[in-house]
Amino acid sequence: MRSYTLIAPAKINLYLEIISDAYGGLRQRPDGYHELAMILQSIELADKIHIKSLSAETIRVNCNHPQVPTDQSNLAYRAAALMAAQFPQALAEYGGVEITINKHIPVAAGLAGGSTNAAAVLMGIDLLWNLGLTKSELEELGATLGSDIPFCVAGGTVIATGRGEQLSPLASLDTIYIVLAKYRSLEVSTAWAYKTYRQEFGNSALRDSENLAARAAAVHSEAIVKAILNQNPGEIAAKLHNDLERVVLPAYPQVLHLRELFASQPQVLGTMMSGSGPTVFALVESEEQAQAVKLQMRAAIPDEDLELFVTRTITQGIHLASSV
Ligand code: C5P
């Protein structure tokens, strides 16, 4: 029986705008989500997902990280359950699946760690069961499980609109080095961040719903998109944006402090919180500078609870490491 090992990269948000109309009206969609315009970027920091067949028609999840559940609350488990429900004949023919997650991406961090694991499971089962699904079919399946999963399947540098599932790829970015900072014990609920944003900054009466689509489309002409197309790291760094910082930074002073510390380092081109946080990232020009920034952060905050990573932009999403 074949087995597959897949690389499941994390992401950062170079841009995250919660779309409102010209009067500050914010729409919570009928599905409870918010309209977004984002630029998502795959990074080299990744989990490794091993998938193999089981003789019984069951799903088993193993993970080396104590904080990651192995039951149905794990998005990777739900991805396997979705494939089993969609393709019952393949389940009967090939049996169940055992999924082993080797975690390197911090959990509940705004880096799409859970989503990228689920995306890898969709792709791994597609291979294991010889389904021959296209990328867009996998993205569509993924969208039913979580907003970031289609991007994790696609990878690279992408404009994402709708609730994050409508993708428009941008040209691949040349390598930019990144330093990530996250307190291990700090987690931010994504649902809380969006709800608080809506309560604090949304004028709930949406008066101009047509304007929303126009606003979402306008992200294509944002300065940061031009900077990406021009391969200009300094300009990209100057145009980073994340609306959710407006609610997360005041509520979590530690996150604000990380951001201020990054901003004070001469090598840092720009810094921003990723997604709903609490990870903060800094863009730098070279690996040496990234290592220097990491050392400076460590010296400023000797707390072992603070995790620091040096990573870089990559141009692909889920990919195969090996098959046996
Ligand atoms: O789709 P996902 O499960 O990753 O989203 C987590 C939570 O974030 C949702 O339950 C929702 O509360 C919030 N969210 C949102 N609008 C989006 C994406 C996420 O309100 N576009």
Describe this structure in words.
The longest helix is centred in the middle third of the chain and has 16 residues, at 113-128. The model has no long low-confidence stretch (mean pLDDT 95). The protein has helices at 75-86, 88-94, 113-128, 135-143, 149-154, 190-201, 210-218, 223-229, 233-238, 245-251, 253-263, 287-300; strands at residues 3-18, 36-54, 59-63, 96-102, 157-162, 166-169, 177-183, 241-242, 270-273, 280-284, 306-312, 319-323. Helix 1 packs parallel to helix 3 (113-128), helix 3 packs across helix 4 (135-143) and helix 10 packs across helix 11 (253-263). Helix content is 36%, strand content 27%. The termini are close together. It is globular. By secondary structure, it is of the alpha+beta class. It contains 12 helices and 12 strands. It has 2 domains: 3-172 and 319-323, Ribosomal Protein S5, domain 2; 177-312, GHMP kinase, C-terminal domain (Alpha-Beta Plaits, 2-Layer Sandwich), CATH 3.30.70. Bound molecules: cytidine-5'-monophosphate. Cytidine-5'-monophosphate (C5P) binds next to helix 6. Residues 33-34, 36, 146-148, 163-164, 190-191, 194 line the site of cytidine-5'-monophosphate.
